[in-house]
Amino acid sequence: MAEDAQTIIVGDIGGTNVRLAFARLNRDSVTLESVWKQPGSQYATFRDALDDFLAAHPEAEGGSRVKNARGGGLEGGGAVGIALGLAGPVVGGRVEMLHSGWVVDAADIGTHLSTDAVLMVNDFVAMARSAPELTDDQTQMLSEGSADPIGNIVVGGPGTGFGLGTLKQARSGQRPAGWVVVGGEGGHQAFSPETDLEWRVAETLRANGVYVSNEVIASGSGFRVTLDALAMVLDLPVTTDDPAAIIEQAEKGDALALALCRLRARCTMAALGDAALAANATGGVFIAGGVSPYLEPWLTEAEAIARFRKRGPRSPLLADIPIRLVTGDKGALLGAAALWRDKQERGWI
User: Is the distance from CB of 162 to CB of 267 less than 8 angstroms?
Assistant: First the structure.
């Protein structure tokens, strides 16, 4: 990097919440300051949310200052740019966010902040990049294994949608040259039912015109339609459509709630097992996303772990891959900052 430390604005712009912070970048570490979180539904546009963040934090901790965007952009002595992870594919510097309806344009954000230093990536690209940066207290081991320190890593899981990303170590001869992230829309891969119950749920959804993807089954965006389909198959009444209440009911043994949580957890593990096989993820798998921590009791069940590891004659390839759950909500912010640093250091991400 051109200097020992920089401050940038970082953002994790999901389908439900907006998280923004200042990131202090040193050569070997990232420190987040003034972390701010609000429901995206409060704002008509991302720019409105950004303005509120800047108005609430005219001076970041440690003296790094950013002028309110309404007052003219970034100050020379403060943040030097902005790095955002957004819930949607970035095409031509522009993101159309599937679940919020926002359109975020890098040129527009740059003009708004009076800077051309704008980095925009998919939110799970940012989340994936955070995996090597996470400390043990920011993750929970779900299934033991032995991670290859230079092996590929898969990061994925359900939030409002279902994100998926892969990391690979770049090499310069025999020397490591940093991480490369391969993103995509893997959550929209088709759900693969295994039990009679799962087949019947999938058929019920299809009969109602739903494309039955892993995102529909496991994520917040498909929560209600999957709950209704499962209730119809089990011939049980839906007494609540509140996700938190469903978790509480499942923990108490309610038949419908328990079946839904197990369905979502097993779908998640099967999807990530497929991704790990496709990516040869000997470096490990990290389960992320806002829904995933709530599913932890069912992600660790023997059947869920089996959904990850069993792949017929190729099961040995997944047998020793460790599976970790990302427990905090700052991963994508750290990942956005790490990607910014990558670009500063090597000129590309």
Answer: no
What's the burial of 68, exposed, middle or buried (CB within 10 Å: 0-12/13-18/19+)?
middle
Radius of gyration for the chain, computed over Cα atoms and rounded to the nearest angstrom: 21
Q: Residue 149, SS3?
A: coil
97 lies in the same domain as 22: yes
CATH assignment of the domain containing 313: 3.40.367.20
Q: β-strands 139-143, 323-326: how paired?
A: antiparallel
Determine contact, residues 326/141, Cβ cutoff 8 Å: no
Distance CA 317, CA 309 (A): 8
- Pairing label, strands 284-287, 153-158: parallel
**Mean pLDDT per 10-residue segment, the chain (349 residues):** 76 94 89 95 96 85 40 59 94 90 95 94 94 93 96 96 93 80 92 98 98 98 98 98 97 98 98 97 97 98 98 97 95 96 91
Residue 317 sits in the same domain as residue 335: no
Whole-number Cα distances in Å, 255 to 39, 211, 229, 297, 307: 31, 26, 14, 15, 21
> What is this structure's pTM?
0.90
Does residue 136 form part of some domain? no
For 141, the enclosing helix (H) or strand (E) is: strand 139-143
DSSP state for residue 159 in the 8-state scheme: S
For residue 270, what are the domain limits? 145-321
Task: Give 155's Cβ-side CA count (13 Å radius).
Answer: 29
In this structure, the dihedral spanned by the alpha carbons of residues 50, 51, 53 and 55, taken in order and rounded to 10 degrees, is: 170
Structure tokens at 7: 């401050």
- Are residues 178 and 280 located together in one domain of the fold? yes
Exposed, middle or buried: residue 242 (CB in 10 Å: 0-12, 13-18, 19+)?
exposed
